C-alpha cells in the first residue's frame, strides 16, 4: 500500500489504510465495493488484500485515478510514451493557457498541460488513465495545499514541488503511478452511488459529510483537476468567478438537514452486502451516535471502531482543528 501515490485530498484515508486493511482481513472473503472511492487508496487496499473490487466515484478525476491505479492490472507508461506526452503540441491548442492565464501556474506550465493533452488525446484505456492521473497528481502537488480555491501564493509552505515545473512533476508522478500497478481483478466507474447494483461481500462507504462549519464541496476545491481530467469537455465553467470554478454538484450527504435521510437510503441500498463498513469523522455535524442508530435500522449487529486521526493539509496552526476521531462502523 505504501506504493500508492499520495494526493492531498480532502478526507483521504491514506494514513488509515493499514488499519482498514487489518479490519477487512477479519471479514468474510468475497468481492468488495468502494462506493465513494475518492483518492482510490481504500479500493487499492482492498485489491492488495486479494479481493475483487469495484471502485466508484462521482468525480471524473478521482474515477480516472481508480481506473489507472486500481482497475489497471499491468499496463504502464513507457519511456517513449512519456517523451511523446512531454513533446511540443501536435495541434497548437491553448485552452488552458487562455483560460487560466495568471492563475495557479506560470504560463509555461499551462502551455505544457495543453501540449500534453494534445498527445493524451491519442491514447486510450489504462495508458490514457495513467497519463491523466499523473497530470492531476502533478498539478495537485504544485498547487499549495492541493486545493484550487485560491490563486495567490499565501499558502506557499516552501515545498520543493512548488519550485519545480509541471513537466518535472509529471515525470515523477508517472514513475509513482507505474510502480503502483499491481495484478488483480478490479473495475472503476464514474457515477451516482445509487446507480450501483452489484453483489458484494463488503460495501465500504465513506460518504461526504457536513461539518459544523464550511462545506464538503469537492468540486469547489478540485475543479481544476476535474477539468484537467476531461480537458473541460462537458464541464460548465463559472466564468464570472476569479478561480474559474465549475458548477457545483449538490449532494444530500453534505447538508446536516438532508444527511440523515440520505444515509438511511444509502444503508438500505446496500442491504444485500454481507458487511457494511462505514467511515465517518467526529468532526461531522451529524453525531456518531445518530449515524450508528441509523445503521442499526438495517443491520443486526454493529461494531464501532475508533481511530485517532488528523485531517490536515499542513503544519500550520489552524491544522490543529483537524485533529479528529475516525469512526469505522461494521454492520453485519
| Alpha-beta content class | alpha/beta
Query: Residue share in helices?
Result: 25-40%
Please provide the count of β strands. Answer: 7
Strands of the biggest beta sheet: in what spatial order? 3-2-1-4-5-7-6
State the distance separating the first and last CA atoms: 26 Å
Q: Which of globular, elongated, flat, extended, rod-shaped describes the shape? A: globular
Given the structure, what is the number of helices? 11
Protein name: DNA adenine methylase
Keywords: Methyltransferase, S-adenosyl-L-methionine, Transferase
Organism: Solirubrobacter deserti
GO biological process, one term: methylation
List key phrases describing it.
alpha/beta; 11 helices; 35% helix; globular; methyltransferase; methyltransferase activity; transferase; SAM-dependent_MTases_sf
Write the layout of secondary structure elements.
Blueprint: H1 17-25, E1 32-34, H2 41-48, E2 53-57, H3 60-69, H4 79-85, H5 95-99, H6 107-120, H7 125-142, H8 166-180, E3 186-190, E4 202-205, H9 218-228, H10 259-269, E5 275-281, H11 288-296, E6 302-310, E7 323-331
Parallel strand pairs: 1-2, 1-4, 2-3, 4-5
Antiparallel strand pairs: 5-7, 6-7
Helix pairs in contact: 1-2, 3-7, 7-8, 10-11
What does this structure look like?
The chain is α/β, with parallel strands linked by helices and 332 residues long. It has one domain. 35% of the residues lie in helices and 13% in strands. The chain has eleven helices and seven strands. A seven-stranded mixed β-sheet has the order 3-2-1-4-5-7-6. Helix 2 links the parallel strand 1 (32-34) and strand 2. Helix 3 crosses helix 7 (125-142). The longest helix has 18 residues, at 125-142. It is globular. Residues 313-321 have low confidence and may be disordered.
Amino acid at each position: 500500500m505504501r506504493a500508492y501515490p499520495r494526493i492531498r485530498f480532502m478526507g483521504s484515508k491514506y494514513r488509515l489504510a493499514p488499519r482498514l486493511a487489518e479490519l477487512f482481513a477479519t471479514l468474510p472473503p468475497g468481492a468488495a465495493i468502494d462506493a465513494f472511492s475518492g483518492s482510490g487508496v481504500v479500493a487499492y487496499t482492498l485489491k492488495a488484500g486479494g479481493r475483487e473490487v469495484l471502485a466508484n466515484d462521482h468525480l471524473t478525476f478521482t474515477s480516472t485515478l481508480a481506473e489507472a491505479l486500481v482497475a489497471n492490472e499491468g499496463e504502464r507508461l513507457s519511456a517513449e510514451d512519456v517523451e511523446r506526452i512531454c513533446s511540443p503540441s501536435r495541434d497548437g491548442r491553448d485552452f488552458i493557457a487562455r483560460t487560466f492565464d495568471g492563475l495557479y501556474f506560470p504560463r509555461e506550465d499551462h502551455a505544457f498541460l495543453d501540449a500534453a493533452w494534445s498527445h493524451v488525446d491519442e491514447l486510450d484505456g489504462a495508458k490514457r488513465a495513467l497519463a491523466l492521473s499523473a497530470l492531476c497528481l502533478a498539478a495537485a502537488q504544485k498547487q499549495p495545499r492541493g486545493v484550487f480555491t485560491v490563486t495567490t501564493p499565501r499558502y506557499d509552505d516552501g515545498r520543493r514541488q512548488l519550485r519545480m515545473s509541471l513537466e518535472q512533476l509529471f515525470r515523477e508522478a508517472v514513475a509513482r503511478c507505474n510502480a503502483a500497478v499491481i495484478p488483480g481483478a478490479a473495475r472503476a466507474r464514474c457515477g451516482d452511488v445509487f446507480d450501483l447494483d452489484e453483489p458484494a461481500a463488503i460495501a465500504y462507504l465513506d460518504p461526504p459529510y457536513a461539518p459544523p462549519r464550511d462545506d464538503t464541496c469537492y468540486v469547489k476545491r478540485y475543479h481544476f483537476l476535474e477539468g484537467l481530467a476531461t480537458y473541460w469537455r462537458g464541464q460548465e465553467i463559472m466564468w464570472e468567478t476569479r478561480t474559474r470554478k465549475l458548477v457545483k454538484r449538490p449532494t444530500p450527504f453534505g447538508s446536516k438537514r438532508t444527511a440523515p435521510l440520505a444515509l438511511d437510503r444509502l444503508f438500505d441500498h446496500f442491504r444485500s452486502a454481507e458487511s457494511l463498513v462505514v467511515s465517518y469523522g467526529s468532526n461531522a455535524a451529524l453525531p456518531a451516535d445518530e449515524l450508528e442508530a441509523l445503521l442499526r435500522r438495517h443491520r443486526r449487529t454493529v461494531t464501532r471502531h475508533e481511530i485517532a486521526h488528523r485531517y490536515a493539509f499542513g503544519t500550520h496552526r489552524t491544522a490543529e482543528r483537524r485533529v479528529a476521531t475516525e469512526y469505522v462502523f461494521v454492520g453485519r
